[in-house]
What we know:
Beta-Lactamase; alpha/beta; 2 domains; Rossmann fold
Amino acid sequence: MARIDAFFKLMFDQGASDLHLVAGQQPIVRLHGELERIKYDPLENDDLRAMLYEIAPEHKIKVFEETGDVDFGYEIPGVARFRANFFQQRNGVGAVFRQIPTKILTADDLGLPPILKKAAMLHKGLVLVTGPTGSGKSTTLAAIVDHANKHRKDHIVTVEDPIEFVHPSQGCLVNHREVGTHTMTFAAALRGALREDPDLILVGEMRDLETIRLAIEASNTGHLVFGTLHTSSAPKTIDRVIEVFPAEEQAQIRNSLSSGLRLVVAQNLFKRIDKRGRIAALEILVCTPAVANLIREGKTHQIPSALQTGKKFGMQTLDDAIMEHLVAKRISPEDAYDKGIDKTKFLSFLKTAPDELS
């Protein structure tokens, strides 16, 4: 048993989502969205480095020493998996570990809208799940892939950095590939996947032009592709995808994206006030013919209006999802105001005016 496992057990027992180990500081966990220090002496740099190196693969240590950053997955059988990030900082080494539950929560467990189950059963197209870091994108995607795994008889290929949720093959054959271990880049894995008879491809992060281009091409050639981006809303997601490309290619990409895109889910996490834990609010954009036309013609500024009027297609705005949680008293008015798009909708719920208006 590695020395660091004691911290992971504490993290698991407390229900913490993240563990921060930084030279010169006490260990810290993130519990229900807030950081809390562990009663422990500040960590010495050399001792922490030895503790971290005990669980890191040799090739990852080499990358860390050459670049100052590295990501990988670590698992304690029967407890949980963790996504690890090592980094260099002013006082020495640092590391952050995100807990990835061994048990995959289903779409029903998470209370996901029915349209996301339908997305899991699509035969082709591009589905994007977006949001800021720590917004629960991976958990939502895992639930969608889990639904596909249980209800389809197809080949699922996941490409991640590192592998997070592990899906045992059920109705589907599932192959997990990790960037840096099983393949060099997302783009290389995606190119390879197209020769591996896939039906559903999960791209853990669409972080560069080539990966985005290949994902769009795959969605237009008979494959169902799921991907993530760090964007805060559905309209901004579409703009982000298009703006990655050089100006002379953007008209062609708008056309390809309008044909391949099926769904955009933009989500944010909120601390619950009715019980312990957090809950997600989801913005859902369905690529109807009208939305596809707006993308093709470069009129993405009109997409918020399409979201407002598209409820019959399963669409919802982030503000409407937040309002539903607020009215049900699952989240606080202050959190709703802070993360809402049109903040005026939430002003009447606040007991005191926010600083910028007082």
